[in-house]
Each structure stands twice: as C-alpha cells, then as structure tokens.
Design brief:
This protein is α/β, with parallel strands linked by helices. Helix content is 16%, strand content 15%. It folds into 2 domains: 111 residues; 103 residues, no CATH class. Bound molecules: zinc ion.
C-alpha cells in the first residue's frame, strides 16, 4: 500500500523507513574506517561528522553494525544527522554514557537494545520527531503490515538474545526512559515469556508494548512525564499478548 493512513487523532501514520543505505559509497566506507580507528585507539568519543565532513556525513542513514566494537566509547555525537535508524548493536556499547543525536529529525524510534547500555545517563534527543511523544503523540507505524528489517539475515530476541528468523520474530513498540528522555523502542520478541520481562513504561505513556497502527489509542497530548507525577494511566485495552496471538493465528 502506498501513502499514509489516518490515525485516531487525525495525524498521518507513516511507515517505518527502509534501510536504504548505499554500503558501497565513499561515505559509508569512510565511516567504517573511522569506526575501526575509534575501536583500535580505544577512544572515548564517537563523532563521525568531524571525521567525514558535513557532505559525506549527510549521506549516512544508519550506522554500521561494527559500532558494537566501540566498547570504550562514552560519548556519541550525532548532532544534525540524516540518520533514519540506529542498529541494535548499539546495545553492545557498554561504556556509553552520553548519547546526542539532537536535531536528527528522521530518527523517530530507537532499538530496544539501547536499554542494555547501563551507563547511559544523559541524552539529547529531538523528541518532537519521536513516535508517541507526549507533545504530539505522533502515531506509531503498524508493525502488523510493516515489520522492521535490520541489515542482517536473522535477528536476535531483544530480551534473551536468541537468534530468530524474521518469520519467527514478534516485533512491538514500547516507550521507556533512555538517558533523560522517554523514547519509543522497537523490541524483537521470541516468546511470551520474554514479553513478560519487559519493563513498565513511565506514566503518561502507553503502559504496555503494542503493535502501533491506526486503532491504537494513545494518552492525551500535552502531559509530560515527570518522575513525581502519579496520575492515572490508561488501562491496556488490548495487551500485546493478544496481539501476538492474533498475529500468529493469521
Ligand atoms: Zn527471547
């Protein structure tokens, strides 16, 4: 299907953008070279724009899977990028403390694996671009007809790390705190047991994982998440378990 469909609040629901990175381009090759330098020299900062220059950096739409080798990097600087997605290997950047993709307006979601970065405390994310952000409640793309494929042929369960085919994996959205922001995350699940291990989202966000789509009812706009607030959160009208079963029965 082409184009967009209207969500429950009248905003257009976009589809998740495909990975259209040209992996033979000079920009990509230079980025891969830079990652190798940062890894070999055990640098603590990853700032690809400085190494590539603005023109080449503008041609980067995702990051190489080798970012998983940057286990000493504490600060990731992606200011003003054209990135459309971040690969799940970011979860292997165990030293990451500060993540700054500010004004990367095509970054609407992040991989759940970023929650594995246990030292990540500080983030600067342009939240208006994010699916489900409290200001606009931008609709979540429907994962039932628009599953997300990463670059590799298989995918790992975001919870237990089991390797899965794209036929087996069950994908869902969940909003969680990353650094200093509430961020929509794409989670890859192998089973209901792994789904039950997902953390509970913060107040004013849908309190369960879901498949997105035009029928999804989000909380009202304009109420930000603060740790002190204890307002009522909307009840799960349709928990993910049901979605998973429905999906499998199809
Ligand atoms: Zn699992």
């Amino acid at each position: 299907m082409f184009g967009t469909i209207k969500g429950d609040i009248g905003m257009n629901i976009s589809k998740v953008k495909l990975d259209k990175q040209d992996r033979h381009s000079p920009a990509w090759q230079k980025l891969c070279e830079y990652i190798k330098i940062v890894a070999d020299e055990q640098r603590e900062e990853f700032a690809p724009r400085e190494f590539l220059g603005a023109d080449l950096f503008a041609q980067i739409y995702t990051l190489p899977e080798t970012i998983g080798t940057l286990t000493r990097v504490k600060r990731v600087r992606l200011y003003g990028s054209n990135l459309k997605r971040i690969p799940p290997e970011i979860g292997e950047m165990s030293a990451l403390e500060n993540f700054d993709p500010y004004t990367s307006y095509d970054l609407c979601w992040f991989p759940y694996e970023i929650t594995r970065c246990k030292n990540l405390r500080d983030s600067r994310i342009s939240t208006r671009a994010l699916y489900g952000n409290y200001k606009h409640r931008k609709p979540f793309p429907d994962l039932r007809d628009n599953p997300v494929r990463y670059f590799s042929e298989t995918v790992r369960c975001s919870c237990c790390r089991r390797e899965l085919s794209y036929q087996e994996v069950n994908q869902a959205w969940i909003s969680l705190c990353i650094g200093t922001d509430v961020v929509p995350l794409l989670v890859n699940l192998c089973s209901e047991a792994c789904e039950r291990q997902l953390p509970t989202p913060p107040p004013h966000y849908l309190p369960y994982a879901h498949k997105g789509g035009p029928d999804l009812k989000q909380p009202p706009r304009g109420i930000p998440y603060t740790k002190s607030r204890k307002e009522e959160i909307p009840a799960a009208e349709e928990p993910l378990l049901k979605f998973i079963r429905k999906n499998r029965e199809k």
